[in-house]
Amino acid sequence: MAADDQWLVVGLGNPGPEYAGNRHNVGQMVLDELASQFSGSFKAHKTNARVAEGRVTPGGTRFVLAKPNSYMNNSGGPTAGLLSYYSIEPSHLIVVHDELDIPFDTLRLKFGGGHGGHNGIRDIIAASGTPEFTRVRVGIGRPPGRQSAADFVLRDFTSTERSALPNLLADAADAVTKTAADGLTAAQQQFHAPPPA
């Protein structure tokens, strides 16, 4: 059954415990935060993803939260499969992912546009046939010194970053629910940090 109040939220990352704390997996960490808001648990789904379904508020938006079992660069197949299975239009898809070009502890929300070099987003655009979906971009910042971006995203957050992480994950989860309930513009106004004075 298609429902106007139903949203698919995909958290990007890599499968397996060895990747769970990596910066690249922050999208899946946000989904854990969201699922905890309605006591949801992730279960295996035939679309090669783990899925939790529920409503954050009684009678509110129904969320299908999904973590692809594929590696980041192959996120498109499970995402396209979930859109089809649940009869959800891409306009009701929110993808939560890490973003190197945004400072750590900062959120940016956008609808449509290119992939910005993010291979998970690139694969979802290719598999779904459209870039017309919402992205919640969770800033992880640039690697220090000469560390490669590929190495940086596959490292765990530092102890300093981990102290700020719970608030960042909570804000990103709230940005998802705000987008679904009140629209992207309202969410951007609430969660985009004002420029430094």
From TrEMBL:
Its biological purpose is as follows: Catalyzes the release of premature peptidyl moieties from peptidyl-tRNA molecules trapped in stalled 50S ribosomal subunits, and thus maintains levels of free tRNAs and 50S ribosomes. Hydrolyzes ribosome-free peptidyl-tRNAs (with 1 or more amino acids incorporated), which drop off the ribosome during protein synthesis, or as a result of ribosome stalling.
Top EC group: hydrolase
Q: Where is this site: Discriminates between blocked and unblocked aminoacyl-tRNA?
A: 14
Under what name is this protein listed?
Peptidyl-tRNA hydrolase
Cellular component annotations (GO), alphabetically ordered: cytoplasm
Name the source's superkingdom: Bacteria
Q: Where in the cell is it found?
A: Cytoplasm
Q: Which GO terms describe its biological process?
A: protein quality control for misfolded or incompletely synthesized proteins; rescue of stalled ribosome
What family is this protein classified in?
Belongs to the PTH family.
Query: Transmembrane segments in this chain: where?
Result: none
Q: How does it assemble?
A: Monomer.
- SUPFAM superfamilies from the entry? Peptidyl-tRNA hydrolase-like
| Chain residues that bind tRNA | 19, 71, 73, 119
The active site of this protein is located at: 24 (proton acceptor)
UniProt GO molecular function: peptidyl-tRNA hydrolase activity; tRNA binding
Please tell me where this protein is predominantly located: cytoplasm
Site-annotated residues for Stabilizes the basic form of H active site to accept a proton: 98
User: Keywords assigned by UniProt?
Assistant: Cytoplasm, Hydrolase, RNA-binding, tRNA-binding
